[in-house]
Amino acid sequence: MPAPPPDAGPDPVLPDTWQAVEVGAPGLPSDAWQGTCRAPATPPRESPVRVRMAFPNLALRQAVALLQAPGDSATWYAVEQGVEEDAACRVVAFHNSPEVSTTRDVLVVPKGLVYPGIYGEGGLLGFAFAPDWPTSGVAYVSYTTHSVTSPVDLRSVVSRVRSLDGGQTLDFDTVERLLELDQPEAIHNGGTLVFGPDGMLYVALGDGGADPDTAQDLGSLLGKILRLDVSASAGAYSIPPDNPFADTVDARGEVFALGLRSPWKFSFDRKLGTLWVGDVGAEEYEEANRAAPGANFGWPVLEGYACYSGDTCDPTGFTEPAGLYRHVNPETEEPTGNQAITGGYVYRGAGIPELVGTYVFVDFLSGEVMGIEAEGGFGQNAHWLASTHRMVVSMAEAHTGELYLLDYAEGAVFVLEAAPPSEPFPQTLSATGCVDPKDPTRPAAGLIPYDLNVPFWSDGATKRRWLALPQNASIERLPDGDLEFPVGTVFMKEFQLVGTRVETRLFARHEDGTWAGYSYRWNEAGTDADLVDRAGAAAVVLGQRWIYPARNHCNSCHNEASVYVLGPELQQLERQVTYESTGVTANQLDTWIALGLFEEPPPLRPPGLPDPTDESLPLDQRARAYLHANCAYCHREGGVEEVVMDLRYGVPLANAGVCDKPAQLEDFGFADMLLLTPGDPERSALLRRIRSEDRLRMPPLSTRLVDVPGASLIESWIASLTACGP
Asked: Which of 93, 171, 217, 422 could serve as 44's disulfide partner, Cβ 3.0–4.6 Å?
């Protein structure tokens, strides 16, 4: 599983550079923003399901698993990973009630015992009640701890723990270590524990990250699903005699299935007893696997159907995935945003009849809920069910058979439920209310045009932008200059290539508070634009390949850390603008203040971001402004990327997390490749990623062309650096 992001730290508020500014004359009349453009209802039902917050008043902390105890539907138990320095590794319980707001501790692991590893993928990872829990008071935990014999000081442990007070709590002083294994690297550690319908304890272990060939080595427990008999009241586990390799020479008898890379979550079908494993892929495929005894899923020889390593890609002897999905859309050659499967459950509930018999799972990075037919054939392409825009780290199955989703970033729990009927969604731009229906090339009355100091690179397209706010609503100003826009807000952005309209995007905040983006593709006559399918599309326009993004791509960049809206922030809006409708040139923020758009007008105003193309300005300022506009929506404190950098303009370079940090995804042929090497652009992955034209390119979505002037600016800046600090 990819390393979860850290919690957001303090924003770089720079009061010494902000000033009180006398508000000047506006460029638009005071009633200019009253119009017809409002966020539409969410798109019509494309799936039988939707996602709803189950416990609105509850917030868990770094929870990675959720379950109910045998025979008890009134209580949920959550496993809190505890990777933060001040966070406890614990199991907490809460009432199964929509009004619940508090938890109680069930198990608290002593501080210092659990070690999450350098990438934060460890910690308290798994928890399972014994099948006879109500009478035995026994449960099992999986966690990582320190190890002097591991090259990365990391050891995986499975332990038994007991309740001494009738099941109210578990006492860690009773812990018995059953299984211990040194980890060769601090990734792909697995850790999920589940009791099967046969009463055996099943354990997931990844390949450990250092040598993927261990997944094929029957003498190693790495890259496997293990099956253990823990029925004895005390002492270690035993190997079930019917395990597939119990009598195989030089094999570990604990192994039930092998050939797995990172089996983060697995479950059993409550009707058929089938074991389902979600295996996180490396470069191309994510797998949903049905695991029979002795199944070998092919890693690292195969990843899905693609060759990964080895001299041949002969699939003989390997179990084909039951279902899979790709990291790249084959039509657009664009990343799908899906990159890490969170294994799920076969739906056997009563609330969504159309979903019965579907193996339902989620992608951790995109938040897309998908499914395949549980009793279907092998090699099924996963089909979309719902979008959550959440970092769903785990799913859960209630005793009723209904399915729940656990959001890692916010600690919220969601439930999957039947989708109600919905209103028709505008299929053409002219039907949105955001353009003149008689002339869709013109915005509707009431849209506020705006511009930015530093636009985001969009393959050389020129852009025009507008904002629509609902009546009697206002913008909340946040301390660092970001802005939070009210429900009903719509942003509209038009893209042109050499004067030809290519696309218009709407980014809307719906009635439930969520943001979503919609692309409209202009027809050849330029008279209207049609709604693009949720999966996105591609076209050749004036000889240039243009990508219309998938809807889930919008929330990859428009994320929680960036408050969902990227361009409109105080330092981007602080500029002069000539308004076409009035011919008046005025300060843009002055105009917004005069229109009454702010809940509270900014008492201090930041200087506008410097223009990266203005060579009269200092090189450092221009380069940092470019990185802020093109990279900092993800690469910031609390961002969604694995490489934790903070490239916001106000963050000193020494604190940006780019200096003396090794490149993680690609070394570009240099053993000492760093994210940024002062004075050496070629040994700076930051620049190499901006220049890339393959899967490593940055920005990663909806772009095919390298921003040559932008890359040259960053190259010159890195070459000019002698150090990363003052």
From this structure: 422
> CATH 2.120.10.30 spans which residues of the chain?
60-321
Q: What is the pLDDT of residues 35-54, one digit of tens each?
A: 778 887 777 667 889 999 99
Measured CA to CA, the distance from residue 338 to residue 56 in angstroms comes to 27
pTM given for the model = 0.77
Phi and psi of 618, rounded to 5°? Answer: -60, 140
Q: Can you read off the two tokens belonging to residue 206?
A: 């990844």
Give 582's contacts (C-beta < 8 A, 6+ positions apart): 27, 28, 29
Q: Which two tokens stand for residue 313?
A: 């890609």
Please say whether the beta carbons of 133 and 115 come within 8 A.
Answer: no
Task: Please tell me what DSSP assigns to residue 203.
Answer: E
With H, G, I as helix, E, B as strand and everything else as coil, classify residue 214.
helix
Question: Residues 194-242: pLDDT tens digits?
Answer: 999 999 999 999 999 999 999 999 999 999 999 999 999 778 899 999 9
Nearest to 238 by CA among 224, 251, 222, 227: 227
Query: Long-range contacts: 516-525, Cβ < 8 Å, 24+?
Result: 516/42, 516/387, 516/389, 516/551, 516/554, 516/555, 517/549, 517/551, 517/553, 517/554, 517/555, 517/558, 518/43, 518/551, 519/548, 519/549, 519/551, 520/428, 520/429, 520/432, 521/548
For residues 225 and 529, give the distance between their C-alpha atoms in angstroms, rounded to a whole number.
Answer: 51
Q: Which helix (H) or strand (E) holds 279?
A: strand 275-279
Q: At what angle do helices 708-720 and 619-631 cross, to 10 degrees?
A: 130
Q: What is the pLDDT of residues 424-479, one digit of tens each?
A: 889 999 999 999 999 999 999 999 999 999 999 999 999 999 999 998 899 999 88
Output the CATH code of domain 60-321. Answer: 2.120.10.30
Among 726, 720, 673, 719, which Cα is nearest to 696's? 673
Cα 476 to Cα 592: distance, rounded to the nearest angstrom:
12
What pLDDT does residue 13 have?
A: 47
